[in-house]
């Protein structure tokens, strides 16, 4: 009769695992719900008298559910970072974002690699994992990544964090900046923020290379690097420009059809503004290049 007992234990063990999995899944969903509530208080409900405290409360609850089993989920950390940025507590936001990125890094960089933006880290080379095994891990990590919109927001928040650190370096940030040690630490974090945003945008590009905003933001990220990478920035901005001109053409053609004229006109104005903005940025890039050549 021993064999039967073993089977029962195995079965029971199996159930236990699935109960644990069910609990983790429930926690994940709850974290998502509390983050969504917090997001609401940051957007549609931001004028409610207790918006900020409700937001903090939701995020505190989300964080309390964030344990070792849900630790692949960056939602709570990213939402707190977003709140801190909106409260002008940007330097605090940086660490939350960098921690959130650690949870996505493997999958993000696996995808980013596909469009030639992945990092060639020494620590990656040091990994003794077989290539094939590593690829499988990466594929799994990539398939469990947060969605496109979430990662696009991550990239934007990282660019915001980088600019907060840039401001604190120049002494006009809202956060205290004490001494050189801190500023070299901040410079490292700034670089990490830019790198994370490039990797995130690369992961988006590998999923869908027809989103103008992604190309545009990649240009912004490369220009925010120290020193600015104007060649890469130009490449991504020119591509964004090309896409916008195509959109403009299509809108103009659609307007001659006479349908939804007002809406098309609005979209057209928006596209024209974006084209103008990128053209201005390309002029800046040209000027930077000229200065560099003169100095060189």
Automatic annotation (TrEMBL):
<feature type="compositionally biased region" description="Low complexity">
    <location>
        <begin position="176"/>
        <end position="185"/>
    </location>
</feature>
<dbReference type="InterPro" id="IPR011990">
    <property type="entry name" value="TPR-like_helical_dom_sf"/>
</dbReference>
<feature type="coiled-coil region">
    <location>
        <begin position="261"/>
        <end position="288"/>
    </location>
</feature>
<protein>
    <recommendedName>
        <fullName>Tetratricopeptide SHNi-TPR domain-containing protein</fullName>
    </recommendedName>
</protein>
<keyword id="KW-0175">Coiled coil</keyword>
<feature type="region of interest" description="Disordered">
    <location>
        <begin position="1"/>
        <end position="20"/>
    </location>
</feature>
<feature type="region of interest" description="Disordered">
    <location>
        <begin position="168"/>
        <end position="188"/>
    </location>
</feature>
């Amino acid at each position: 009769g021993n064999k039967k007992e073993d089977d029962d234990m195995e079965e029971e063990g199996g159930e236990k695992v699935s109960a644990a999995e069910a609990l983790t899944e429930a926690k994940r969903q709850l974290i998502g719900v509390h983050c969504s509530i917090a997001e609401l208080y940051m957007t549609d409900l931001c004028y409610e008298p207790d918006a900020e405290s409700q937001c903090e409360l939701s995020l505190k609850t989300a964080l309390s559910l964030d344990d070792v089993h849900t630790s692949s989920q960056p939602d709570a950390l990213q939402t707190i970072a977003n709140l801190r940025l909106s409260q002008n507590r940007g330097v605090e936001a940086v660490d939350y974002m960098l921690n959130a990125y650690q949870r996505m890094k493997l999958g993000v960089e696996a995808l980013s690699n596909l469009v030639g933006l992945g990092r060639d880290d020494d620590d990656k080379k040091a990994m003794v994992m077989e290539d094939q095994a590593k690829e499988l891990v990466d594929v799994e990590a990539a398939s469990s990544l947060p969605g496109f919109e979430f990662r696009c927001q991550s990239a934007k928040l990282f660019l915001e964090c980088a600019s907060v650190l840039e401001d604190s370096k120049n002494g006009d940030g809202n956060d205290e900046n004490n001494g050189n040690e801190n500023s070299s630490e901040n410079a490292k974090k700034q670089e990490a923020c830019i790198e994370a945003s490039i990797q995130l945008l690369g992961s988006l590009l590998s999923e869908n290379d027809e989103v103008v905003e992604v190309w545009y933001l990649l240009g912004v990220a490369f220009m925010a690097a120290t020193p600015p990478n104007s060649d890469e920035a130009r490449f991504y901005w020119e591509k964004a420009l090309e896409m916008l001109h195509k959109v403009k053409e299509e809108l103009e053609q659609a307007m001659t059809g006479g349908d939804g004229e007002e809406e098309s006109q609005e979209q057209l104005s928006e596209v024209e503004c974006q084209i103008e903005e990128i053209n201005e940025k390309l002029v800046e890039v040209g000027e930077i290049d000229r200065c560099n050549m003169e100095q060189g």
